[in-house]
Amino acid sequence: MSEHTVSSYDEELTAIAGCIAEMGGLAETTVTNAVSALVTQDLELARATIKQDGRLDELLGEIEVKLVEIIARRQPMGGDLREIMAAGRISNDLERVGDLAKNVAKRVIAIDSDLKSKKLAIGVEHITELALGQLKNVLDAYTKQDAEAARQVREADSEVDAIYTSLFRELLTYMMEDPRNITQCAHLLFCAKNIERIGDHATNIAENVYYMVTGERLPEDRPKVDETGVVNA
Amino acid sequence: MKEMPKIDKADEMSETKIAASKVQVYYGTTHAIKDVDINIQPRSVTAFIGPSGCGKSTFLRTINRMNDTIDICRVEGEILIDGEDIYDPKVDPVQLRAKVGMVFQKPNPFPKSIYDNVAYGPRIHGLAKNKSELDEIVASSLQKAGLWEEAKDRLDEPGTGMSGGQQQRLCIARAIAVNPEVILMDEPCSALDPIATAKVEELIDELRENFTIVIVTHSMQQAARVSQRTAFFHLGILVEEGPTQDIFTNPQDKRTQDYITGRFG
Ligand SMILES: Nc1ncnc2c1ncn2[C@@H]1O[C@H](COP(=O)(O)OP(=O)(O)O)[C@@H](O)[C@H]1O
Ligand SMILES: [Mg+2]
Hints:
With 233 residues, chain A is mainly α.
């Protein structure tokens, strides 16, 4: 897009996009570290990850100040307005991603024992890989203002959901096999759920990127199949 | 917008107060308005925005034939109000201007009392049979213009002694007094401070219940605040027209986008 007549306005918008990019990068590392601490039972890394989340909260605060200021001073319109609304929402989603990763890191400390099964570790790593891929793709879509890429991210969320469902079943089986597994499996189940929700935040971001770029909302009709409810029944 | 129920859409299409088609305006050899087509809905506020010199005022003046008063000005095309061609030779421009009132940029009360400013139109159009009917019209016009409380005890004082904002609302009362259907406003707030502007905007919002209002404004924020539909003009062309929220959040034309976001060189 061409430049504003008032060039400091461009600089302010660029600064906001820069903050989002920084938050995005940080959110990705926080998730990677939390899960890596989980599968290797690295308590040191878990503690460092919890600290890292604090920086995401700080950045969110900084972005909010910048957004309020730009709204008050510039009264953004059109594509600028959509960009600013999207930045507000995306930064909130990224901050939530950080919280979810922090929650995983806290559970590493609570579990404080090696994972009972290599297969379980692989399962958690796999869902994390998918969720992180979603996060990376949606952040790229944001940077490149690519509505089609954002749409694809939303489509792909069902894969994360499917993996979560199969992990859920697996953990349930372990718990039924031996009640001594219950504590660890329950923690792992929450970890998996947190990572599945990171995927949901990537989806939210995708919807906001799509709106930011096109001015249209993605149709609401994506059916969310949660089979874990059926298993529970 | 695409998800709107069909009935709303149909209503929107069928209700037209002012229908302009293929309108051209020339000042001598200058082609100031080019091929403008627009339908303006009744009982709503339509805002004209665009860079200075793009033809907003020129087009506004075609709606009550104010351009007739400019010698070198020539208007072509068709403008219908309630389906009637206002450029038909049978139409009396003076009668037309009672039906289509106008408020200007600079408040221009007559150098007469507040009362006479409002009573002027009804008198020349013979709208009141006697003094008490005229009093009635003056009072109700001042009320509709939100000026009654401030003016009722000083009706004999000169209108020119009021504040700028009051003068502008007096001009609106004067326009309302002849019972118009359409009110045209050409940058009515550009000489007013923010508080007086807010009062006029509040008034415009109330008036749209009974009148069709077309307002030219150089303030996009004002267009966003007061209008239901917005039309963007550029170099004499109507680039884009639509629901105000769409124009300011998701304009379809790049020129509109550049203008509303402050990207015009
Ligand atoms: N009375 C006039 N005589 C000659 N040219 C005019 C007259 N009024 C306007 N114009 C020209 O017509 C164009 C549109 O002007 P105007 O309608 O006043 O624009 P806007 O209201 O959007 O600022 C401009 O190029 C202007 O110079
Ligand atoms: Mg003008």
